Amino acid sequence: MIETDAFFERNLNVIREEYLPKPGQPKNTASVGQLLYEFFVFFLYEFDPASQVISIKEQGGFARKCAPDKLPFSIIDP
Questions:
Q1: In what order do the strands lie in the sheet with 75-76?
Q2: Would you call 32 helix, strand, or coil by DSSP?
Q3: C-alpha torsion angle, residues 3, 40, 29, 58 (rounded to 10)
Q4: Does the pLDDT at position 67 exceed 70?
Q5: Which is nearest to 44 in space by CA: 32, 55, 34, 36?
């Protein structure tokens, strides 16, 4: 049995402060289709799930995988 732990922020003030662009930051002008395309290109051709995990706490967003597993990709949540 695989244990899954997920958290969804419900506080809109936290979402505005932590996740939305700050004043003066450049805005994303790419279309949703372009962003989706780039997402799939990255995870199909650049991301190596055998040796990397997605890490929320690492500055670059990725970390080395410590042990092999059977999951298609792993996300480390602090």
A1: 62-64, 52-55, 75-76
A2: helix
A3: 50
A4: no
A5: 36
